[in-house]
Amino acid sequence: xxxxxxxxxxxxxxxxxxxxxxxxxxxxxxxxxxxxxxxxxxxxxxxxxxxxxxxxxxxxxxxxxxxxxxxxxxxxxxxxxxxxxxxxxxxxxxxxxxxxxxxxxxxxxxxxxxxxxxxxxxxxxxxxxxxxxxxxxxxxxxxxxxxxxxxxxxxxxxxxxxxxxxxxxxxxxxxxxxxxxxxxxxxxxxxxxxxxxxxxx
Length: 201
Known about the structure:
Oligomer: single chain
Helix content: 40-55%
Shape: elongated
Strand content: 15-25%
Strand order of the largest sheet: 1-4-3-2-5-6
Mean pLDDT: 90
Structural class: alpha/beta
Distance between the termini: 47 Å
Number of helices: 8
């Protein structure tokens, strides 16, 4: 059966998202394979070949991506998405968030210079909370396009109080509590008082 250009494009995109999300969520291919009754090697080949080698059905791949938090078409599912991002993953992070047409966000740099956190509200029912090396904080902030209202992501250097709050939030296991705290950043009673912001770009 002839594969169309559109099908190749979809497969390549799915392979990229699968590779990014399983790393960002620190999930092994073996655990994914066991959950979805497939072979680790097939998933690995699909990712490394950028979708050209596919021994897994598209339906199963869609279910894998759904479990990792992604809907058809590359949109994030409702809920809180906690990711750990390294330098090699920045482009994929920005591409996925830009595709989701997020509403607002911050990139926080810890005052101790050890870590940074991206907090992005995609919509009222959807947020991303990502931990990243402080060295790539500016690259992430500048890689995220302005919102529909023309606002760019704010790059914020935290004080000691902010450091403690954001790190405690990252360690909090209850997603509902974390989600509520993230939403509070844009209210009159935020999780912590924000220092002066720096606009990315």
